[in-house]
Amino acid sequence: MHDEGKPTIDPNDGASGGDQVAGAAASSDPGVGLAAIRALRTLADRLEDVQVANARSHGWSWQAIAEVLQVSRQAVHQKHSFREGARPDKGAAARGTDSADEAGKDGNHV
């Protein structure tokens, strides 16, 4: 196992951070390449969180999101639905619904 001087790569480090990570992923040094892969996964997870929340706030169903991400509706719901519970739906009280009702509004039950 390689543990001396573990490289750390921050995809948010400066304006060219993404370019540095992409270049590091092609490194011949396995430590640098693997650290870059870890940084890219972290970045991809954060972007997915943001865009799933964006899609839900625009009325997208779990099924529609799942189709774009090419995963099952259950997988995307399990990974992201807890965020909806923490974020109150401003219009739910006025409509007499809650987030659970909204999740199935397209006819698909979650």
TrEMBL record:
<feature type="region of interest" description="Disordered">
    <location>
        <begin position="73"/>
        <end position="110"/>
    </location>
</feature>
<protein>
    <recommendedName>
        <fullName>Helix-turn-helix domain-containing protein</fullName>
    </recommendedName>
</protein>
<feature type="compositionally biased region" description="Basic and acidic residues">
    <location>
        <begin position="81"/>
        <end position="92"/>
    </location>
</feature>
<feature type="region of interest" description="Disordered">
    <location>
        <begin position="1"/>
        <end position="30"/>
    </location>
</feature>
